[in-house]
Amino acid sequence: MQLVFATNNLNKLKEVQSLIPSHVKLLGLKDIGCFEDVPETQLTIKGNAIQKAEYIKEHYGFDCFADDTGLEVETLNGEPGVFSARYAGELRDANDNMDKLLQNLEVRPNRNAQFKTVIALHLNNNLETFTGICKGEITKTKHGDKGFGYDPIFKAEGYNKTFAEISLDEKNTIGHRGKAVRLLVEFLNTI
Known about the structure:
Layout: E1 2-5, H1 10-17, E2 25-27, H2 45-60, E3 64-73, E4 80-81, H3 94-105, E5 112-123, E6 126-138, E7 154-156, H4 168-174, H5 176-188
Parallel strand pairs: 1-2, 1-3
Antiparallel strand pairs: 3-4, 3-5, 5-6, 6-7
Helix pairs in contact: 4-5
């Protein structure tokens, strides 16, 4: 089986490749000649995942899956949510995004948050979605140099280290994307 993972994010591609079974050949966007930005104009994480998967299927004809992920902070009514990558502006700078979030939480005692990933699979002209959630909290300062995005300021429940301080294997075990990918893999194994 061959599937396109509709992402230009090499970090995401690396994370997901380590979870996909060997009988599934995973292709990235550059492998199919897709170099344009895939649209992400929906107002929900699920909506963006579906939009990206449908775009690749419609324009390139490949069975594919796409994900969208957001960090949802309880005291900020779910912000940054669907706008996580662009929270501090269109440059999509992770440090700027983290700095803005830390500043917005400065005087707030509640630092509860969750990462949410939705994967939309377009396979054999059917659409399926899979959701993974990892609950935790936002730290007061950045810690660690692994991972990407908000990883240096997110600690999963029951952990005293941020996602940027733990191994990729550990992150895949407890993290939102890993949970969603495992649901995707379970589904693929039933076909």
